[in-house]
């Protein structure tokens, strides 16, 4: 920690390039919060602060904990700090104290603790994981957690499908959707190992809330009823209502008993029948009353009170009438949660939420761990803290508390060590509410830490004109060309100004709130950005500092508006090709891309200078299409409509045909692809023949299906068939990534993207496809699994997200989401879809949860109650949720704007409602800008009217909702003119027809294939042949490591069969006695479409299913060749063999194991066996488990017809070595067995594998063969 008696000093080298605010932040001696505005050099300051603690304070590099939001940010910070210290050492006297400190840090920089908060939480968990039943070698993977929880949820739902309460909840919803939306969603979203469900507490809170709301409704009805039943004909209604009110009050009193804390949850019952009838009767009476028409002003006021009360009444009624079902389902949720947490502990697979919650619990409950960390850390630095939450704040407070404190709770601010915490963030850039970020935690930090105002306000990224625009639009500060002066002047002028006279701004202003009304904690408060002072010509000036002096002859912000002919505020559909006019979204895309093209062609900017930002990706494909149409290169971090273009589809269908050999649709697609190049009609004829000949010719690529082809077409078919057979043979040993790579490069598909300039834009689809394949390989899945993943992407039309891979194209327009753009900067930014409504919080799932009341369930409304609302707690939180969503949208708009260095374009459409058109009847503006101003004014007037009529109205569902009032402030209504110093332009977006669109397209530059071949023929005819050595693949399968045979003809690791058999088997195996039915099925496939390897895969799947209790999942490539009868016989044989194994000694031992894993994937460096080898042995172990005492057992299932265990000794030796390394066990503690599924015989190869030394140079594996001969 920084001690108060230390003299404040900053090394001159570190002081270079720092302004006054930055220097104060770097040298701050107290626990502080640095409010770092956009482009203010946050990373620059963070790195200087870290170096200052080392160089000037003498801290060891591993005593400073520097936490960032992402791994990428951590890597950037790591490299910057290292480079900074290195430069300091080079510029300093080697014998000086500062140089010695910096040099020591560089020598030990591998110990630097610059990491994400998730990574640090995982470190804390590993120190005490065993105390919480967690393996220290746990892994963190949200994707795998989601997959296995959904599988468990489906099995659990099927097991309880007859539960009446569950049936009441799901209504007509399918079981698989119930499993995902109820059981899986509850555990994934609202539960962790450290913080399981606490339904007892939640039910008490819920009952109290419902009772309070019910009482309020009864009072409202009591007050309003006399007003609404004041005529003679209403006397009977009033009399009946008085009876209902008496019953309603009785219901309110009865509520105290239904969730009594003294009654165990499993014994709680639903509402008694008599009270249920009272609830329904009361609701029916109030429904009639609130449906009356407003005859007088007094009537209208009463109805305005009663109608919202009725909505609350119905949602309360729904909760009460289903309370019994709720109490019945809660134990099921708890049982499922316990099951999932047990699996997490056994497998060591955790979610990120698990590790952070466990880390907090460890720090609170384990004082020894906490004390050790407190002593180890002298300083803690946290970047981007505005995107964190209270749990993460508590973790940091526990690490920074005074050494002597050991209380099992988060410390108060006065219990912290002085100067140990350094928070950096910007409340205006908190945009991860959907991930649990809470901006109010960051806002409260300054108050908690009693921190002085430490702000970084100078924007080094944007031009001065753009900074003025930011201040005017987001803070209501009038720009004068010098933002700092403007900000000061505006602050002084606003003192004592009436809120109504204050200029509008995107962010809320404190001055607009009534005296005594607190500023909402979830809103960001805007402070003006300033233009930095000119940088002195010194080293290490901040990146982007020169951006502040950019000049532009016109305003830097361009608001581009399309007047919609219909209300399409939320219309994000693509254009209908049959319509003459483009729809709004496509018209906007055409305009944006045309503007970008104009900027590029004028030479003002390069393509790489431009970013097109999206709030949602719904219309991204429209922009990609327009960019291709106009010949502009682009790069996207999210791939929309992945299967809409040929390259992905062609490769997918080829791989699908390998995995599913009888898929006629895939066969037809391959025939018309560039791999075969058949005309469509010829392909259809071949496909038709394939369907007819399916029984006699299971392989679709048979010449029997090409009888209608002649000449060149027949030759193409033969060539395609040869390629198909080659890849089928290779598919068993090659990785998915290798298969994709082969089709792209070796089979020549890459060249298909090079015939036209726009075709080159498709080439990067290969990179994305390859990355998906690589990820599939890393999870140990087969080609069939990869094809199934692609099929799921195709069926759901899902986008590819988080594809962070390096692409070759650098000079390209960037397509990126606003959230992903954070931290990036571009000279020109286009913000699209500004009129599209943000998706508010919806209550469409089976459950709803919040921090105040916990989990509540959305039971279908009862038929007896009209217009019944589903969930009282959602209704109570709806206004607050809308306000928080609006606040988040303001911040998101700010992040989008502040990515720009020079210019911002923001575009969208608007629709004039009938009310708006009424206001514009007298307005006639010939000037386009004035017309747009008057339209904006009408839209603002309509919005104000809505807000005045509804006290719960929350505007701000689109970017334009925030911008339009600010824009209209620059229009003088009296004179009908635009005010001076407007920081933006208003530009109309033309509505185009499809005919006009054709004129925009760039001319295509395509050469025919024949022309290219003619041009290139002389070159390759004169080229000399280059001989290259045949290289084998890098990966080796353990099954290929069979040792060479001995002179006796037996395995080199076995002895004569009779003696060997007597040792290993109860009786000698007889090949003739084993599974004749399977032999018959295998022998019926002359071309090997179904072999013993396929049956082995099926048998393994059945054995695995008996352990997991999940449905058997058979890979498509293993069963696709079988007819219905064959498949039934194979399944029955596999099931019988698996059950025999479970009954065996090994099976019973595995069933009761402490830890067990089926299909355990591994990679082992071949250098373990052959020094200098760069190969990798890659495989999957059928079954491995750990017994009491720490012994590991490896079981390899075999379906061989002839049993010779010795021939598998090499394979089992590799498995043994891999398992000992991966599980950190001594080699002697690993046993190895071969289990023959046909006979049930077990062979113990532990002794043989212990003696084995594999010679890879003699191992038999197939060398990699080129495909050049068949292409």
Automatic annotation (TrEMBL):
UvrD-like helicase C-terminal domain sequence ranges: 539-823
EC number: 5.6.2.4
Amino acids binding ATP: 36-43
A GO BP entry: recombinational repair
Top EC class for this record: isomerase
Reaction(s) the record says it catalyses: ATP + H2O = ADP + phosphate + H(+); Couples ATP hydrolysis with the unwinding of duplex DNA by translocating in the 3'-5' direction
Region (Disordered): 519-550
Keyword field contains Nuclease: yes
GO cellular component: cytosol
InterPro entries xref list: DNA_helicase_UvrD-like_C, DNA_helicase_UvrD/REP, P-loop_NTPase, PDDEXK-like_dom_sf, PDDEXK_AddAB-type, Restrct_endonuc-II-like, UvrD-like_ATP-bd
Name of protein: DNA 3'-5' helicase
């Amino acid at each position: 920690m920084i001690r108060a008696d230390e003299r404040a000093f900053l090394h001159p080298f570190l002081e270079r390039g720092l302004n006054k605010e930055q220097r104060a932040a770097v040298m701050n001696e107290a626990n502080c919060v640095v409010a770092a505005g956009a482009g203010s050099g946050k990373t620059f300051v963070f790195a200087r602060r870290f170096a200052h603690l080392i160089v000037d304070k003498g801290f060891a590099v591993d005593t400073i904990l520097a936490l960032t939001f992402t791994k990428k940010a951590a890597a950037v910070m790591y490299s910057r700090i290292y480079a900074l210290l290195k430069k300091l050492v080079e510029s300093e006297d080697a014998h000086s104290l500062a140089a010695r400190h910096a040099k020591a840090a560089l020598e030990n920089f591998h110990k630097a603790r610059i990491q994400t908060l998730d990574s640090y939480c995982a470190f804390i968990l590993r120190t005490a994981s065993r105390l919480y039943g967690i393996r220290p070698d746990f892994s963190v993977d949200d994707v795998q957690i989601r997959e296995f929880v959904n599988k468990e949820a489906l099995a659990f739902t099927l097991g309880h499908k007859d539960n009446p309460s569950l049936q009441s909840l799901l209504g007509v919803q399918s079981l698989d959707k119930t499993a995902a939306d109820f059981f899986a969603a509850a555990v994934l979203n609202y539960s962790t190992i450290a913080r399981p469900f606490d339904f007892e507490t939640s039910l008490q809170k819920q009952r109290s809330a419902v009772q309070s709301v019910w009482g309020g409704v009864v009072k409202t009805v009591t007050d309003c009823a006399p007003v609404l039943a004041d005529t003679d004909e209403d006397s009977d209604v009033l009399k009946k209502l008085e009876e209902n009110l008496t019953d309603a009050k009785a219901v309110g009193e009865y509520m105290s008993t239904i969730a009594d804390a003294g009654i165990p949850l499993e014994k709680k019952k639903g509402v008694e029948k008599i009270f249920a009838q009272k609830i329904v009767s009361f609701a029916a009476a109030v429904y009639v009353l609130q449906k009356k028409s407003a005859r007088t002003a007094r009537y209208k006021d009463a109805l305005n009170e009663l109608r919202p009360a009725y909505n609350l009444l119905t949602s309360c009624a729904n909760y009460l009438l289903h309370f019994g079902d709720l109490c019945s389902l809660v134990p099921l949720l708890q049982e499922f949660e316990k099951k999932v947490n047990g699996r997490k502990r056994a497998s060591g697979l955790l979610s990120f939420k698990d590790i952070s919650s466990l880390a907090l619990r460890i720090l609170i409950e384990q004082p020894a761990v906490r004390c050790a960390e407190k002593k180890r850390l002298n300083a803690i630095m946290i970047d981007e803290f505005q995107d964190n939450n209270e749990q993460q704040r508590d973790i940091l407070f526990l690490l920074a508390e005074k050494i002597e404190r050991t209380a099992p709770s988060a410390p108060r601010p006065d219990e912290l060590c002085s100067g140990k915490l350094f928070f950096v963030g910007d409340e205006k850039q908190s945009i991860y509410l959907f991930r649990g970020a809470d901006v109010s935690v960051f806002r409260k930090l300054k108050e908690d830490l009693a921190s002085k105002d430490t702000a970084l306000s100078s924007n080094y990224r944007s031009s001065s004109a753009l900074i003025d625009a930011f201040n005017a639009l987001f803070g209501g500060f009038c720009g004068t060309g010098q933002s700092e002066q403007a900000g000061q002047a505006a602050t002084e002028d606003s003192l004592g100004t009436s809120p109504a006279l204050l200029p509008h701004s995107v962010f809320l202003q404190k001055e607009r709130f009534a005296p005594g009304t607190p500023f909402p904690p979830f809103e960001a408060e805007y402070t003006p950005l300033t233009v930095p002072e000119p940088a002195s010509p010194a080293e290490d000036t901040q990146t982007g500092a020169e951006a502040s002096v950019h000049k532009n002859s016109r305003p830097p912000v361009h608001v581009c508006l399309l007047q919609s002919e219909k209300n399409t505020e939320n219309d994000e559909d693509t254009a209908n090709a049959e319509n003459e006019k483009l729809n709004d979204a496509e018209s906007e895309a055409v305009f944006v891309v045309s503007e970008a093209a104009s900027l590029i062609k004028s030479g003002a900017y390069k393509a790489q200078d431009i970013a097109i930002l999206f709030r949602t990706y719904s219309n991204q494909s429209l922009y990609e299409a327009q960019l291709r149409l106009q010949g502009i290169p682009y790069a996207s971090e999210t791939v929309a409509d992945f299967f809409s273009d040929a390259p992905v589809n062609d490769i997918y269908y080829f791989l699908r045909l390998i995995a599913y050999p009888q898929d006629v649709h895939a066969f037809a697609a391959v025939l018309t692809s560039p791999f075969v190049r058949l005309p469509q009609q010829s392909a259809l004829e071949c496909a038709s023949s394939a369907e007819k000949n399916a029984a006699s010719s299971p392989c679709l690529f048979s010449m029997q299906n090409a009888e209608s082809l002649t000449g060149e077409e027949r030759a193409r078919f033969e060539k395609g068939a040869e390629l198909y057979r080659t890849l089928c043979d290779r598919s068993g040993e090659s990785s998915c990534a290798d298969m994709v790579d082969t089709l792209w490069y070796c089979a020549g598909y890459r060249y298909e993207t090079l015939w036209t300039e726009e075709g080159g834009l498709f080439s990067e689809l290969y990179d994305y496809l390859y990355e998906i394949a690589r990820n599939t390989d890393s999870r140990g899945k087969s080609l069939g699994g990869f094809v199934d993943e692609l099929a799921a992407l195709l069926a759901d039309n899902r986008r590819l997200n988080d594809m962070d891979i390096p692409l070759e194209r650098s000079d390209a327009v960037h397509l990126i989401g606003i959230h992903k753009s954070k931290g990036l900067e571009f000279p020109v930014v286009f913000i699209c879809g500004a009129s599209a409504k943000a998706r508010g919080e919806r209550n469409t799932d089976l459950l709803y949860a919040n921090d105040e009341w916990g989990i509540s369930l959305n039971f279908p409304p009862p038929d007896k109650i009209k217009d019944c609302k589903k969930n009282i707690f959602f209704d109570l939180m709806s206004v607050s949720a809308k306000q928080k969503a609006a606040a988040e949208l303001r911040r998101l708009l700010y992040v989008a704007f502040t990515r720009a260095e020079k210019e911002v374009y923001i575009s969208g459409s608007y629709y004039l409602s009938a009310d708006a058109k009424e206001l514009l009847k007298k307005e006639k503006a010939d000037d386009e800008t004035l017309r747009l101003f008057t339209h904006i004014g009408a839209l603002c007037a309509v919005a104000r009217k809505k807000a005045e009529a509804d006290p719960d109205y929350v505007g701000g569902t689109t970017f334009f909702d925030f911008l339009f009032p600010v824009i209209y402030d620059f229009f003088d209504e009296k004179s009908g003119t635009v005010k001076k110093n407007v920081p933006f332009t208003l530009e109309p977006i033309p509505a185009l027809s499809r005919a006009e669109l054709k004129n925009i397209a760039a001319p295509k530059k395509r050469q025919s294939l024949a022309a290219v071949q003619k041009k290139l023929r002389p070159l390759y005819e004169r080229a000399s042949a280059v001989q290259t050595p045949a290289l084998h693949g890098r990966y080796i399968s353990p099954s290929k490591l069979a040792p060479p045979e001995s002179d006796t003809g037996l395995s080199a690791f076995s002895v004569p069969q009779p003696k060997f058999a007597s040792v290993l088997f109860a009786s000698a195996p007889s090949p003739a006695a084993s599974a004749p039915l399977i032999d018959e099925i295998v022998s019926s496939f002359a071309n090997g479409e179904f072999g013993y390897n396929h049956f082995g895969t099926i048998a393994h799947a059945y054995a695995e299913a008996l352990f997991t209790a999940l449905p058997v999942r058979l890979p498509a490539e293993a069963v696709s060749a079988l007819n219905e009868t064959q498949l039934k016989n194979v399944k029955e044989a596999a099931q019988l063999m698996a059950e025999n194994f479970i009954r065996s000694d090994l099976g019973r031992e595995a069933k009761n194991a402490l830890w067990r894993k089926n299909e355990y994937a591994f990679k082992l460096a071949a250098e373990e066996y052959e020094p200098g080898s760069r190969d990798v042995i890659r495989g999957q172990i059928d079954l491995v488990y750990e017994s009491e005492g720490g012994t590991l057992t490896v079981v390899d299932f075999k379906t061989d017809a002839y049993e010779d265990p010795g021939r598998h000794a090499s394979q089992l030796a590799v498995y043994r070595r891999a398992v000992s390394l991966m599980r950190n066990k001594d080699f002697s503690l690993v046993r190895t067995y071969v289990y023959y599924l046909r006979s049930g015989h077990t062979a113990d190869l532990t002794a043989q594998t212990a003696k084995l030394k594999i010679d890879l140079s003699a191992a038999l594996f197939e060398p990699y063969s080129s495909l050049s001969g068949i292409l």
